[in-house]
């Protein structure tokens, strides 16, 4: 096949079938600072990532092709595509070093992006350590009182299919049907990603202004319903000035587990959940996912695109 000849000519020893398999597996995500979109990658980008992984080549200018070269070009969209391909191939230890370098340099978008992209590969303890380091500069809490409103919701009722999801019928009819909603996943005793997720939703709520609860509904679903009572969720929401239009969901564990599975947000343990925001425009049948710790303006862009019925570049990692 032509690819085998090309690889031999370039001195690359990776089997052609392996190259094609990885390209098929990772052909969706193109990454630039603050921008995620779906498009096909070139074989060239994959081969550059492989070369950097081997770390035994130099370019025409005599510079070594290694992860330091990736770091040097971290603000370049084209190189960031290679960076994410490399991160999917590199040992976790190398990915950890690179993420730490990005955090130390203040490259929050790229550090968060790689961590989110490689979330399932990274061991839990390391995941927590990197998240804490990444989020500590932006971790804020707001202890002002919650507006007095019915800001929590306990689902009940049997499951029923709707659109691409099998949502508990009461969740769908009460919270989603005919609306545009942004959903994140939290639990009240979380000390890593959940407080920043709450703070981000609070800023999105402020950005929405009068549109909150009218054009867009914010929903926080507990991933720990056994412990997160409505009272605990209400107190948690108070830290972020949750106002009407921001609803907190808990209930019996079997029902919440069913809901989490339907939303592809189920995990074995609450602390293993990922910082995802799911945006649904039910009227237009549009569903998209984005990074829950992105800048509020980026999440707002995804929400506005969903309202318009557009699936644009899904944002980013802060």
Short description:
43% of the residues lie in helices and 15% in strands. By secondary structure, it is of the alpha/beta class. Helix 6 packs antiparallel against helix 7, helix 6 runs parallel beside helix 8 and helix 10 packs across helix 13 (296-307).
Architecture overview:
It contains 13 helices and 10 strands. With 318 residues, the chain is of the alpha/beta class. It folds into 2 domains: 2-138, no CATH class; 152-307, Glutaredoxin, CATH 3.40.30.10. A hairpin with a 2-residue loop joins β1 and β2 (35-38). α6 packs antiparallel against α7 (108-117), α6 packs parallel to α8 (124-135) and α7 runs antiparallel to α8.
- The tally of helices reads 13
- The tally of strands reads 10
Residue stretches low in confidence (pLDDT < 50, at least 5 long) are 25-40, 138-166, 314-318
Q: Helicity level, as a percent range?
A: 40-55%
CATH class of the largest domain: Alpha Beta
Mean pLDDT: 75
Topology pattern, helix = H, strand = E: HHEEHHHHHHEEEHEHEHEHEEH
The geometry reads as elongated
β-sheet strand percentage: 5-15%
Which architecture name of the largest domain does CATH use? 3-Layer(aba) Sandwich
Strand order of the largest sheet: 3-8-7-6-9-10
CATH superfamily label of the largest domain: Glutaredoxin
Gap between N and C termini: 42 Å
CA radius of gyration: 21 Å
Question: Can you tell me the number of structural domains?
Answer: 2
CATH topology of the largest domain: Glutaredoxin
Largest sheet geometry: 6 strands, mixed
Given helix and strand content, the structural type is alpha/beta
């Amino acid at each position: 096949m032509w690819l085998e000849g090309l690889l031999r000519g370039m001195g690359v020893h990776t089997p052609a079938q392996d190259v094609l398999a990885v390209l098929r597996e990772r052909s969706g995500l193109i990454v630039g600072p603050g921008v995620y979109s779906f498009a096909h990658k070139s074989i060239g980008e994959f081969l550059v990532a492989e070369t950097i992984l081997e770390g035994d080549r130099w370019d025409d200018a005599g510079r070594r092709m290694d992860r330091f070269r990736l770091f040097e070009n971290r603000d370049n969209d084209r190189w960031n595509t290679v960076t994410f391909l490399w991160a999917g191939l590199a040992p976790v230890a190398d990915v950890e070093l690179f993420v730490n370098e990005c955090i130390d340099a203040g490259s929050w978008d790229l550090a968060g992006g790689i961590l989110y992209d490689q979330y399932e590969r990274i061991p839990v303890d390391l995941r927590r350590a990197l998240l804490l380091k990444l989020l500590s500069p932006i971790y804020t809490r707001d202890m002002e009182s919650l507006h007095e409103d019915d800001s929590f919701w306990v689902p009940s009722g049997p499951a029923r299919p709707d659109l691409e999801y099998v949502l508990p019928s009461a969740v769908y009819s009460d919270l989603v049907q005919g609306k545009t909603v942004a959903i994140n996943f939290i639990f009240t005793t979380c000390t890593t990603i959940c407080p920043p997720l709450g703070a981000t939703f609070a800023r999105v709520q402020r950005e929405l202004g009068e549109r909150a609860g009218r054009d867009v509904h914010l929903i926080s679903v507990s991933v720990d319903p056994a412990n997160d009572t409505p009272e605990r969720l209400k107190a948690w929401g108070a830290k972020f000035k949750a106002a009407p239009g921001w609803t907190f969901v808990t209930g019996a564990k079997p029902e919440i587990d069913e809901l989490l599975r339907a939303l592809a947000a189920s995990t074995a343990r609450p602390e293993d959940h990922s910082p995802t925001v799911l945006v649904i425009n039910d009227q237009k049948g549009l569903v998209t996912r984005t990074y829950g710790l992105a800048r509020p303006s980026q999440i707002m862009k995804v929400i506005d695109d969903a309202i318009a019925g557009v699936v644009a570049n899904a944002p980013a990692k802060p």
